[in-house]
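Batch job 17 of 40 flagged for manual review because the log was empty.
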Amino acid sequence: MAAPKKGRGPSGGHGRPGRALALILIAMVALTGGMFLSGHTAPRLGIDLAGGTSITLEAQNQPGKPNAINPTNMDTAVGIIERRVNGLGVSEAEVQTQGDRNIIVNIPKGTDSKQAQQQVGTTAQLYFRPVLTVAASGPAPSASPTPSGSATPSGEASPKSEEATGEEATPSPSSTTQGRAVTGALKAPTPTPTGSGEPKPSDTPETTPSADPATAKLQEEFAKLDCSDPKQRSEAGKNALATDSTVACGSNVPGSYEKYILGPAEVSGSDVDDAKAAIDQQTGEWIVSMEFTSAGAKKFQTITGRLSQQQPPMNQFAIVLDSEVVSAPSVRTALSKNAQISGSFTQQSAEELGNILSYGALPLTFKEASVTTVTAALGSEQLKGGLIAGAIGLALVVIYLVIYYRGLSFIALLSLLVSGVLTYTIMSLLGPAIGFALNLPAVCGAIVAIGITADSFIVYFERVRDEIREGRTLRPAIERAWPRARRTILVSDFVSFLAAAVLFVVTVGKVQGFAFTLGLTTLLDVVVVFFFTKPLMTLMGRTKFFSSGGAWSGLDPKRLGAQPPLRRSRRVNAPIEPKEA
């Protein structure tokens, strides 16, 4: 009788569990090393946990454009605002749409949120308009300014000021052009501070008749305009179309204001391809260099060629952002694709103007609907509450595993630890990589993931127990239970991941943090179960503690109600007696 063949061990990964464990160990070491080398040793926190400012911008209906508020324009506005806020040095800001007409700007703690808030709140439409008339602005008198001659601080005409020296009149503070003038560059005005919103009698501004005279209504509006009044300043030219002449306010010196009559816009912010602050290599002064698109270069050449032939202040063009003049440089020569604005710039003012020129043109007008500031103390309290909730959930899972599964809980706890390390390191690396921020809903998603991960272990453990109940020993039970448990785990995780993906797509704002964390931890659950839990279970099945089926192993056949192994009964045939002859 031939000897029975020895059973062959499981092939593939089942027979070599050490390889899978080594692979996941290498991945953990690599992720942890990358986390420390990158300097991001903790997940980036959202403003609801770390503190910060949340600004809600509401798109406004525009005259003559009933369908301007649409998904395309909203997405364009989000991209421009995001580039502009980050261009200010506000790191890791979050800009996203909410509903069909709102944009949420989240500025985390640790950045210059005040400066960003000011610029975000005025981020709408950018135009280049020719200056027709300019005057220092204080409380307006009843008399209207005359377009000829030079306007006094009160707005009355003063023909004598042009005849004072027999030469060209001195420009107003907003049109002064002292300093270096370079061919092919724009000269920014060098303001003379007055120390208050009321101009001094000597600060007589110059007004020059416009080639396209303003209407009487516009002149009257200009005369009554007091730019030192915040309400009037914000309303000036607010509803003007790009094709209309309008009034506007500006300020070159804090506390001192100028009012303008501006011609129709001839160049828009979308015509600017790039603008940035730089240091002039010859003078060491800060300048703003601009580069226009091909279409914008033609428009800019036309307007600068015309303005360069005019006398102050009509040789100026105003850079108008949300109906406010942010700069009004004078033109000395016709320019085209490249230009420079030079003058009394500091580094901050040059960078701000460059940023406005680069990112200031939006397809819509926005109103600042709300500003919410979350203090660091409140954020830390919310984070503390989330961590406590997570600790309680984890503790309940651990208690359940230890009581019900006993020795098997050791495998489950190690698997949870590995899942936690992978989740933490990946979240830390995703912060600088894709801007992921851990907010309170994301913490909730991580807490829910504890239950999902533990559920996968329970499915596998119960399959192994079912095999033992049928009378099999531990090592065959581990391998026979795996295919059935694997299918159940994959189906369960697929459903969870699908739900997270749908939630991420159809929601906005912080709810996406919950969906993203849930989806990430669901994928990691599959990785941990396949590359850690199953191989570790195979190794533990070879130890005496588990294979002997002790009471504390969690695999005691008696406690599980195991049936005795099925054995075939051998049938004994009766001897055949020889037949009688």
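Reviewer: the log was empty due to a logging misconfiguration, but the result itself is present. The chain has 15 helices and 15 strands. Unflagging and moving on to job 18.
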